[in-house]
Amino acid sequence: MTQPLRLYELTGADDSCRFSPYCWRIRLALAHKGLPVETVAWRFHEKEAIAFSGQGKVPVLVDGDQCVSDSWTIAEYLDRQYPERPALVGDASLKATTRFINQWVADSVHPALARLILPDVHGVLDEADQDYFKRTREAAFGVSLEALAGQRETSLQAFRDILKPLRSTLAVQDYLAGEAPAYADHIVFRRLSVGADRQCPGVAGPGRSHHRLVRADARRLRWRCAPGTRGSRAVGRCRA
Questions:
Q1: Same structural domain for residues 64 and 111?
Q2: Phi-psi region of 97 (alpha: psi -120 to 50; beta: other; left: phi over 0)
Q3: How many domains is the chain built from?
Q4: 161 and 148, same structural domain?
Q5: pLDDT by residue (tens digit) across 33-58?
């Protein structure tokens, strides 16, 4: 590797507000591997900026002449491309468990948390993204963002109920992956730390987290990001 990897991340109106959990799990994965990365802010209406990836969503990772999209695919790529560095998904047994956690978060945790935070996320978006976001999310959930905002207490209890297996597991072990964090922990970490991010103060999270990873995972990894700028886009360099 002769140059830092480049990671395209979803952002709000403020370039520093990087709120996508799918992008953040890749930031954590890169820190886990100890790989330097240059991050590029991207918004929903900027499809042409990532057209080279052959699709229209982030995260997108560029590694030399390699381009990889989808967070799970990127994690697998990093393990395959950099096997000498700490593993993310590990052996077949851990990979199978991590795949289950990835799917559980996507099918259960993400929809429940989305009902809590979508109205706030809409408020921190660039104006050019707000109509698209409102239209697509209301279609997906079958309810208006205004109605979701009025259902917060009910949604909060439902979200807490979904996390019961997670709390039970972490009552007897430090990490989902065992004695040290792995990609399974990074998947859950960012999903539960939403609302605690000082870069996105307009997005309220689910309240006090029941998940020790929010503090311990970041502390163990000791990843740091130093923001900079390049043209009209925010660029950050993260290192382990």
A1: no
A2: alpha
A3: 2
A4: yes
A5: 999 999 999 999 999 999 999 999 99
Lowest-confidence range among 16-30, 59-73, 192-206? 192-206
Is the same domain home to 82 and 99? no
Q: Which residue's structure tokens are 């799970």?
A: 72
- Would the pLDDT of 64 be above 70? yes
Regarding whether 170 and 111 lie in a shared domain, the answer is yes
Model-level pTM greater than 0.90? no
Q: Provide the CATH number for the domain around residue 81.
A: 3.40.30.10
- As given in the structure block, the two tokens for residue 176 are 């989902």
Task: Give the residue numbers spanning the domain of 230.
Answer: 5-89+222-239
Region 53-73: what's the mean pLDDT? 97
